[in-house]
Amino acid sequence: MKRITSLLAIILLMTSCNDGDLVQETIDFEDYDTYSCSENDIIYKLNDKEALLLEVDSIYFANDPTVDGSPTTLDISTTDNRLVYRFYNGTATADNICETIQPATPTILDQWYATSGTIEIITTSKKEAGELTNSTVITGYNHLINFKNVVFSTSNGELKYSTLAFGSYVTTATTLPFNFEKILTQCSSSNVIYDYKSYEAIMLDIDPALIVNEVTTAGSPRSGLIGTTTNKLTYRYFKGLLSASYFCNTQTPTSPVLSEEWSGVAGVSGTSGIIEVTTTTNGTNAFVHTITLKKATLKKSNSSFILGDSYVLGTLTTTK
To answer: Which neighbouring-strand residues pair with 274?
Structure first.
């Protein structure tokens, strides 16, 4: 009799979890690696026989940090910004997620679709130390993904989460070579000096007071600050090869196509964004101006990196 009573209690406990309102289940993929499909906008995680899939337009994983306290937020639905939890009868692989014609095994035993909720994405840049002292290099962007107030539709009812952590998804940053010859050219019609090589260019609309055909005293260079108009510093990276014809035009050419543009952050006297020019002679009529940037920072939207304590922009030769 006791065994029958115990069996009935177990049956009642099992059926009480299938009341059409709430299924007690644990979804935990936070510590698993994140992968993406090259063919579509699906990112996913695998845990043996389980998979968690998120389909979100890649524009929401832009290589630019979000503002503190203001994550990117998206509404979950069954048609846009989809979130799916799958069960397989064997170990799942990338082929089960990304292939148009999926392998016959393992097969999907069940899948739950999120019908509502919010996706929150917090993006930060990943930085490493550069070659120069106190310089930084952006190597990628970390997108921390969390779900709020998610409701899954399951065969047993609804599974609800007030918070559900997906984890991090990392995108790769464009490698900016900074592989210049450091021989500067000045436009005849402006104060812009520039250097370029292959797909990249760096330009400085320099204050003419810094380029004077007079030798500077040792240890006393001419000095200025990076600004937004005078002494404006710009770095550009292109999708095609550059030539000298790109520069010194009244209107900026549309070819090659610009991929990224970074602007120098305005300098602070004695602290950052300092321009130093040292002038020497080369023969009787030529002057060589070595231009160095001290503690300069380049910025694009919310991203920034430091060129280092001392970055030699290059040398500019002028004549009397």
So the answer is: 225, 294
Which amino acid is present at 245? Answer: S
- Residue in this structure with the two tokens 């023969």, named with its chain if needed: 283
Task: Give the global pTM.
Answer: 0.88
Tokens (6 digits) for 200: 């990249």
Interacting residues of 110 by C-beta distance below 8 A, sequence separation 6+: 86, 87, 154, 155
Q: Are strands 185-186 and 222-225 parallel, antiparallel or unpaired?
A: unpaired
Task: Look at residue 3 and give its three-state secondary structure.
Answer: helix
pLDDT, tens digit, for every residue of 152-175? 999 888 999 999 999 999 999 999
Mean residue pLDDT across the chain? 92
Question: Does the N-terminal peptide bond of residue 256 adopt cis geometry, omega within 30 degrees of 0?
Answer: yes
- SS3 of residue 100 by DSSP: coil
Which among 78, 46, 320, 57 is positioned nearest to 167, based on CA atoms? 46
Q: How far apart are the first and last CA of the chain?
A: 112
Token couple for 17: 């979890």
